[in-house]
Input
Amino acid sequence: MELNNAPDLTAERLNEEATSSSLSEEQYKRKMERRKEVQEQRLADRNLEKGLIIVHTGNGKGKTTAALGMVMRSLGHGYRVAIVQFIKGAWEPAEKAVLSHWPDLLQFHAMGEGFTWETQDRQRDIQKAEQAWEKALTFIRNPEFKLILLDEINVALKLGYLKVENILAGLTEKPENSHVILTGRGAPQALIDKADLVTEMTLIKHPFREQGVKAQPGIEF
Amino acid sequence: MELNNAPDLTAERLNEEATSSSLSEEQYKRKMERRKEVQEQRLADRNLEKGLIIVHTGNGKGKTTAALGMVMRSLGHGYRVAIVQFIKGAWEPAEKAVLSHWPDLLQFHAMGEGFTWETQDRQRDIQKAEQAWEKALTFIRNPEFKLILLDEINVALKLGYLKVENILAGLTEKPENSHVILTGRGAPQALIDKADLVTEMTLIKHPFREQGVKAQPGIEF
Output
């Protein structure tokens, strides 16, 4: 589908112009009126509902955290959600405490192992990742689930524990209206090509590296 | 504080090397043993607890969503959290439904106006933004709040509704151990310089633009 992007460009130009301090109140008002028209045009143009394949990648923070935010929104709408964690971190009691508020809506499945450098056994890691993917497939195929979060699956792909062809094939089994989020650094290009919404989280400054600050509750876990 | 970043570089090199399919199982195991040692070194080096100034900026998705994820984690730890919304969106019932699970821990304050192109009155917008900032300051100063989310405040800064000097001065009143998150595109450089943790969310692909897909419940609101 070809889409007219002119309203986007106009919206951005108007946003930029509105920040000029040399505008009179009346000029500002006219720009905002025009901006409102453009926004209405944008919303009219985009009327398609579609289940999305969403990728959060990059070396910055916020990949899993933003996915968690989408999980919360979906639960707020009363949708059923499944989370499969492919590379388990050490921290999760706070997240579990939060998610336990929706026992009927949320399914949570963790791979049940530590980071890869904890196990040091590649064959076992591969087996666990494959088991997690089989579990994920049962959620992906199930039309009762509106959102499926495959947390850190990109890392399992990068490590070669899972094959991207298999993941792409599995995603074709998704019902039309459900969303799948795949997080983790190093998302393979074939997955990015297939995805609808791809965001790269880029690290600009991080206190862990620059100031010797440790991972802290509420922020990192 | 000068920090030794050699372990970070070693960790990244080992991560990369571990993805090589030509490694024997034994070589893989040794790399992961070394990786584990490096990780222990990294954690030993970083032992500082510190309240953080966190900025989520960039043109991509996930700035508010990742902040919402941090809010959820903090609530999961039983911390008090305040949210001040500077540029109110049209959508929030689902988020409010989620947040209503923590009536004792969470304070929510919305500017009470629509997007700037809805009001078209700059003086009124400026006044509302200043009121929201005054409210935010009461939370920032209050040591009972562990996390304060100033949602979309960067947009108010970019539009000139608030002055960055005032925001930076206000942030110095934050107690040592509390965190403040400032979201929105166009974060001013002076704020980035002051922040501890800065992540830029970069749009790689977006279905709203590319496929005419509208904002959807559970994902965008």
